[in-house]
Structure formats: C-alpha cells, structure tokens
Write a structure and sequence with these properties.
The protein folds into three domains: 12-120, Nucleic acid-binding proteins (OB fold (Dihydrolipoamide Acetyltransferase, E2P), Beta Barrel); 125-275, 3-Layer(aba) Sandwich (Rossmann fold), CATH 3.40.50.300; 289-370, Ribonucleotide Reductase Protein R1, domain 1, CATH 1.10.40. 36% of the residues lie in helices and 22% in strands. It has helices spanning 19-24, 57-65, 143-156, 174-184, 201-207, 224-232, 240-246, 271-275, 282-288, 290-296, 313-319, 325-345, 347-370; strands spanning 30-38, 41-46, 49-55, 76-81, 87-92, 98-101, 107-108, 111-112, 119-123, 127-133, 135-136, 139-140, 159-165, 189-192, 213-217, 258-260, 266-268. The strands form five sheets. It has a six-stranded mixed sheet, with helices on both faces. Strand 2 (41-46) and strand 3 (49-55) form a beta hairpin. Helix 3 packs across helix 9 (282-288) and helix 12 (325-345) packs across helix 13. It is globular and about 75 Å long. Bound molecules: guanosine-5'-triphosphate and zinc ion (ZN). One of its GO terms (cellular component) is cytoplasm. One of its GO terms (biological process) is ribosomal small subunit biogenesis. Residues 123-274 form the EngC GTPase domain. It is found in: Cytoplasm.
Length: 372
C-alpha cells in the first residue's frame, strides 16, 4: 500500500464510531470505516491500521441486486480477517444518512430503503456545509444556488449549515447580504467565514465537534478546498491557485476521500460529491421552503399552485412584501426540476407527466382551431 497520510492505527472514536454503531456490528467482525472505494474493493481505516478489503460474497450479491448496497466512502463496515492475512468486507452497517444519485431512495429508521436503483455517493455524513461566496467574480451570493444545495442537503438526512465564504470581500454590504441569505435558509445556521482572515473558521470547527463527518457543497471557486485546508491546519487539498500556478502533480499525494481534520471531525470530498447537482430532492424542497409551505396551509384550496388562484395566501404574502417574489420563483423552479428528476426514475410518474402534456397539447391545438 502506498504511503498514507493516516496514522498506522486509529482510535475508532476519532473516526466517528459510537455505541449505536457498535450495537449494529455483527458478532465476530472487525469494525472499519470506508475511506475510499475502487472496483470491488475498499480502502478502510480500522483500529489495526489502513487496509484494502475486497468485498465478500454477501456484499457482492446484495450490490448486484441493488447498487445502493455497494460500499461507499463514509460507510461503516464489518471486516473478516482471512487465514492468509487479507481482509474481506463482510457487512455494511445501516447508514444514518446518504447522498444518493439517480435513484428514489428514502431514509427510514433501518437505513436506506431497498427499492432504489441509485448510487450512493457518500454515507454517514452528519453536516452538510453549503458554501456560497459573498462575492463570486463580480456577483454577490446566489440565493437560488443556496436553496438548491440546501434541498439536496436536507434530502440526504444530514444537517445543513450555510457558509457565506470569502466574507473578507463583502465589505460593508455583509450584514445586508447575511440577512438575505438567512431569509433563503429558514431553520438553518448561516455563518460568514473567511479562510483568508480566519473569520468564522472556529465556528465551522464547532459544527464538527464530537467527531462529526461533513461534506462541503458549492460551486467551483466557492473556496471549498481552501476551507478544508484551513480546517485541517495543513495543505490537504489542492486549491485553484495551486492548480493555476504550477499545474498538476504537486499535491498528488492528496487522493484520500475521507479526510481527518487536525482539530477533530472528518470531511468527505469526492469528485461525485463535487459534481452533485439536483437529485431526488422532492422532500428537501419542502424543507427549504418551509416558509412557503406554512403560508400554503392558509390558501383557500388545498391543491393551490400559488399561481393565480383566488384566496392564495402565498401570493398575498408576496403582494404585502412579507415573502420575496424571488423566493416564490425559486420554489416554482425547484419544484419543477424535482418533479422532472423524479420522473426520470419513476415510470408511473413519467407516464402521468406525458399524459398531462398530451392533454395540454390537445387543448392548445383545439383552441388554435377554434380561433376565428
Ligand atoms: N478573498 C478570499 N479568497 C478566497 C477565500 N477562500 C478561497 N479564496 C480564493 O478563491 C479561489 C478558489 O478557492 P478554492 O478553495 O480552490 O475553491 P473550490 O471551491 O475548492 O473550487 P473547485 O476546486 O473548483 O471546486 C482561490 O483563488 C482561493 O485563494 C477567502 O476566504 N477569501
Ligand atoms: Zn396558494
């Protein structure tokens, strides 16, 4: 095995192990956390060190039936040591949270429900940092992007936290901006941070206390790598400046995907998580727009679309200025996207949407014919 940044052995609790994980571990197996996966094998961290473990027959069979059962970074697993000294990954422990791409997975008490065909990008993430720069090129923070990433974060089951990064660039407009961001993220902690001045970095550390595991979501250039380096207290990630300055190669030792941080806690950073867009976030959208959901309870019609229906409490709130119009537009857009994403994986829903389009097209044609 190549040189590793991980120490030779691990205190399991520093990797996030706790009593309820212990209770779920099948007898006779060795507890380990998946740091990275390759085809058919995982790099795992356990009390005895850092190993490669191939998947046992049970894991292979389960994964063939449903890819959600494939081990992924962040998973807790049970290993068996084979006679020849190799390790085999025998069992996955139930996931507390999961980022799933392209499937209709639901977290239930026992872990993920088994009826999905999605791919799990990361498991057992406790905190999702949504990073949005106070200033990005010449634009200020994009509230719509924050809402979109929050929907995804809620959907994973983890706790979202919004970080307005590069706060040093905002100047006097920061308090106003923070107010706007807070209004786009009801029920979510919002912090201004600067990896440059160190402002707010301790608050981020605080969210990781008790060895919690986090992911950082955000657009390219949001400052994710710089933040992870600030949290680790060392250069674990290659940042844009490094990439621009001398191209590839300097930080090639940086390839682990589960990153233990100097001050405690862990970060999961994978290309899949970096590229994650908008998947399966139906319920997540409801949580991001809890203010609209609350207003909607006072609409005259239970199925109000908050468009032009009489007695719509949401429109009324836009009109009296309590709900920003931008937010209603954003809700509309994300609702449509979520429905479309769900329809890609749900044949019945797809059929229903197609039928709806057929009816609309027919009506359009009819009204065209009827025109004098
Ligand atoms: N002024 C200021 N600049 C920052 C701060 N954090 C990051 N930057 C700069 O922003 C640029 C992008 O930072 P990265 O950390 O590489 O951004 P990233 O989100 O990891 O980007 P990708 O790897 O493309 O996803 C770099 O030039 C950083 O030096 C900050 O707190 N303040
Ligand atoms: Zn309404």
């Amino acid at each position: 095995m190549s040189a590793s940044r991980f120490p030779v052995s691990h205190d399991l609790s520093s990797l996030g192990w706790d009593d309820s994980h212990a209770a779920a571990l099948p007898d006779g197996l060795i507890p380990a956390r998946v740091a990275r996966v390759d085809r058919g094998a995982a790099e795992v961290l356990c009390a005895a060190g850092h190993f490669q473990a191939h998947y046992g027959a049970t894991v292979r069979r389960a994964a063939a039936a449903d890819p959600v059962a494939l081990p992924c970074v962040g998973d807790w697993a049970g290993l068996r040591k084979l006679a020849e000294g190799r390790f085999e990954l025998e069992a996955l422990l139930p996931r507390r949270t999961a980022f799933v791409r392209g499937g209709v997975a639901r977290l239930s008490r026992g872990g993920l429900s088994g009826d999905s065909k999605g791919q799990v990008l990361a498991a057992n993430v406790d905190v999702v940092f949504v990073a949005e720069p106070a200033l990005h090129a010449t634009d200020t923070a994009d509230l719509g992007r924050i809402e979109r990433l929050l929907a995804l974060a809620w959907e994973s089951g983890a706790q979202p936290v919004v970080l307005v990064t590069k706060s040093d660039l905002a100047g006097e407009s920061l308090p106003f901006l923070m107010g706007e961001v807070a209004a786009a993220a009801p029920g979510v902690d919002v912090h201004a941070i600067s990896s440059l001045t160190g402002e707010g970095v301790d608050v981020v550390h605080g969210h990781l206390a008790g060895t919690r595991t986090a992911v950082v979501l955000g657009a390219s250039g949001a400052g994710k790598s710089t933040l992870v380096n600030a949290l680790a207290g060392t250069e674990v990630m290659e940042t844009q400046q490094v990439r621009a300055a001398d191209g590839r190669g300097r930080h090639t030792t940086v390839h682990r995907e589960l990153i233990p941080l100097g001050g405690g806690g862990l970060i999961i950073d994978t290309p899949g998580i970096r590229r994650i867009g908008l998947y399966d976030m139906g319920e997540g959208v409801d949580l991001v727009f809890s203010d609209i959901e609350e207003l909607a309870e006072r609409c005259r019609f239970a199925d109000c679309g908050h468009d032009s229906e009489p007695g719509c409490a949401v429109i009324a709130a836009v009109e009296d200025g309590t709900l920003p119009e931008r937010r209603l537009e954003s809700w509309n857009k994300l609702q449509r996207e979520a429905l479309w994403m769900a329809s890609r994986t749900d044949a019945r829903l797809r059929k229903e949407l197609q039928n709806r389009w057929k009816i609309i097209h027919k009506e359009v044609r009819k009204s065209g014919r009827n025109r004098p």
